[in-house]
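Batch manifest, entry 17 of 40.
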Amino acid sequence: MRGRRTKTCPPSWTVPFSSYAEVTDFLRGVEIDCILRGRPSDGTVSLGAVARCLHELKRPDLAYRSIHVTGTNGKTTVSRMIGALIRATGLTVGVYTSPHVMNFRERIAINGQPIGEEELVDACNHVKAFLDVHGLQLAPFEFLTAAAFFAFRAAKVDYAVIEVGIGGRQDATNVVAPELSVITNVEYDHAEMLGETLEQIAAEKAGIIKPFTPVLCGPMPDGPRAVVLSRAAALKAPVLVCGQDYEVSEFIRAGYTGVCTVTAGSSTHPQLRLPSPAAFMATNAAHALMAYDVLRKRGLLPEIDGEEIGRLFEETEWPACCEVLSGTPAVLLDNAHNIPAAMRLATILRTTFEGRRSVLLVSLGQNGQWKQVLRALAGAGADRLIVTGDPHDRAVPPDLIAEQWRAWSSVAAEVVDNAEAAFTRALQAAGLHGVVAVTGSPQLAGYCRSLAKSSAAETLVRP
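Output type: structure tokens
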């Protein structure tokens, strides 16, 4: 295990951030500038600029072992699961994910905890120094990626699990030299950046595969799988395919949880209990366990007791990933923001909560798919839709969402601009024995998660 973090100072001629608020204000300003210039604010504009920045910072990304994770859906949860398994071995691990659910700082986590404000300011100041000296600008995701790599080096982590922002080939994170690459799945999303076909999207995601480096290939149709396998073969990268080299069997819903058996290589994990009724969470767990098995067999991670693995998956929370908070009514939190994820959520709502009154609470980001996402959610069979735009800064106007919904569905739709008021209204509309499904925006799911947990706590202490 490595020692404590080392704090260094950026060059004296730069103008440093003096507080966490200044960092977030700066990133917000850069985001607005990107939007006005028609550049992707949540993706990568110039991989070369990121590489140059990291070179100036003396390649912090090479100071620790890394695992690189991409995929259309599930990559955040898989990254956190891998991080939790590494942490269980006693090693120090950093996990870089996006977007955040509860707190902006959770994007850069060290040993399962969001980075501290002081540590984030320190890391950002070193990146800003490079920009100030060279008169350059990075997109928000590029800036934060460089800061994350620096922060992990400063914290002296043993491992870093790095989630791709969008795609993979041209992503800001694709400078790492990982011990393992993971492609969770390939589905339709970000067509304007990645391509119109699954094969084109797969080619972008397969761009994270490195020579002679093992890669996990998740479930996907034959076409995109062939693209991934071809890329791996060209780079002589060993491939482990979900459904062949590792798999999930016997998934059973048990209330708001799921129980399954995962086989990863030569290891079998029976009766693994997950705090979600979604079958895809079992597949996420299989990716993580296969990643751990690969690293363990290479002598890069120590053994973890089987019972400890079982406790880890049962007790660790995966916020807003088909997460159910029991109560009256129950609250289902899922940050589904693309068509495949919305379709899966609709299925969960229809099956797990069959016969119960259900209310959708939705905020949708402004992207080319929002209408299709809304239509997929209409398949949930909900009894009411409540739309809010707050706290999602770039949300589709709620009135426009409600208008589109009414064109497709006879189910009532109403607009409540304030997120807290919208959540309260959804609880009322669902009734004591119903369910409220909060979706479409990670920030809305995180905000309502806090409200739901606070409400539950108040109920417990109420005389």
